Amino acid sequence: MCDVKCSKLLSTWVKAPQLRGAKILIASACLPLVAPQVYKQVAAEVDFVLLACPEQEPAAHYGKLASIIRSSRPKSITVVTVDGSPHCFALQAAVNEAEYILGEKVERRHYVVVDAKELVEIKPEAIRVARYLSLVAKIVRKYPEILEELKRYSLEHRQAERLSRL
Question: Is residue 120 part of a domain?
Fold first, then answer.
């Protein structure tokens, strides 16, 4: 699934010529398999793709991303991950964290793929809120109907509901 304009994030030199001033896509390593059409669409819009899987790799993505941004000054970063994956969430948060570490604005866009077909843009603020479970709990209390929507996507939630009725 990876071609000459694609590499693994943690295996890529932060000053690789392909990254300098480039439009970069940071995508879940599983995205080409899970949602091949979406992957082809978003990969076609960038200069270089960096694939990463936080489930298989150490939690060093934010430092690597900060080094890439500082060393190669990419034109933009687009992050695309699979919605609902706790591992993929780490990539979204890592880009926010890299901007924080650097203390400078990074041109970026965040997306998740829903149901392996729909690309949904996510604001950086939503990613920040998701890190604070106390705030998420407050949102769920205020909008309990969100749990009905969660039921559409989360097998874990459906099972938890079933088990709570036993």
Answer: yes
Task: Using the Cα atoms of residue 70, residue 72, residue 77 and residue 82 in order, give the sign of their dihedral.
Answer: negative
**How many alpha carbons fall within 13 Å on the CB side of residue 64?**
20
pTM: 0.91
Specify if 1 maps to a domain. Answer: no
Query: What's the pLDDT tens digit per position in 82-97?
Result: 999 988 999 999 999 9
Neighbouring-strand partners of residue 156: none
End-to-end CA distance of the chain: 44
Q: For position 40, which CATH number holds?
A: 3.40.50
Which of 15, 18, 8, 104 minimizes the C-alpha distance to 60?
8
Count Cβ atoms below 10 Å from residue 35 Cβ, excluding itself.
Answer: 23
In the chain, DSSP assigns E strands to: 6-8, 23-28, 48-52, 76-82, 108-114, 118-122
Q: Which residues contact 86 (CB under 8 A, 6 or more apart)?
A: none
Task: Give the integer Cα–Cα distance in Å for 8 and 76.
Answer: 18
Contact 66, 72 (CB under 8 A): no
Do the strands 118-122 and 23-28 form a parallel or antiparallel pair, or are they unpaired? unpaired
- Tell me if 117 sits within 8 A of 35, measured CB to CB: yes
